[in-house]
Amino acid sequence: MGEVLGKVLVVDDDEVIRQLIAVNLTLEGFDVEQATDGQDCLERVLDVMPDVITLDVMMPHLDGWVTATRLRTDEETRHIRVVLITARAQDDDKRRGLGIGVDAYLTKPFDPAELIRIVRDLAAMGPERKRV
């Protein structure tokens, strides 16, 4: 097996979508961990310390908006790259995500090849964030 491209935490309450993302990223060479919702993500993120988090927006317990905001306001996690993946495709939703400071916004249904490209590019950028 080749070199690991980075570690990704896949966060989605839908097991089928979570597995689809995880399998595609694993086949591409990423080390993938999974979380079932925003609360699970926040409880596991410091143990996992991923390079990239793929984060669904519409989830129970803590949605992706709140989770992304908490990741960005915590000194220990603010450097982690975040990709919001959501069926919410309105311009206001995209602006909200960018306002929180997410690194990419992908709408469902998405092309797995596009997701892989985005995650690969973000993982290759390393931990230095250009915006805070």
Residues in helix, %: 40-55%
**What pattern of helices and strands is seen along the backbone?**
EHEHEHEHEH
Strand segment count: 5
- Alpha carbon gap, first and last residue: 36 Å
Nearest-integer average pLDDT: 90
Structural class: alpha/beta
Q: How much of the polypeptide forms β-strand, as a percent range?
A: 15-25%
- Quick one: biggest sheet? 5 strands, parallel
Question: What can you see in these coordinates?
Answer:
- The chain is an alpha/beta fold and 132 residues long.
- The chain has 5 helices and 5 strands.
- Strands 2-1-3-4-5 form a 5-stranded parallel beta sheet, sandwiched between helices.
- Strand 1, helix 1 and strand 2 form a beta-alpha-beta unit.
- The longest helix has 14 residues.
Write the SSE topology:
Layout lengths: L6 E5 L3 H14 L2 E5 L2 H11 L3 E5 L7 H10 L7 E6 L4 H10 L3 E4 L4 H14 L7
Parallel strand pairs: 1-2, 1-3, 3-4, 4-5
Helix pairs in contact: 1-5, 2-3
Notable characteristics:
132 residues, alpha/beta, five-stranded parallel β-sheet, 5 helices, 19% strand
In short:
By secondary structure, the protein is an alpha/beta fold. It is 45% helix and 19% strand.
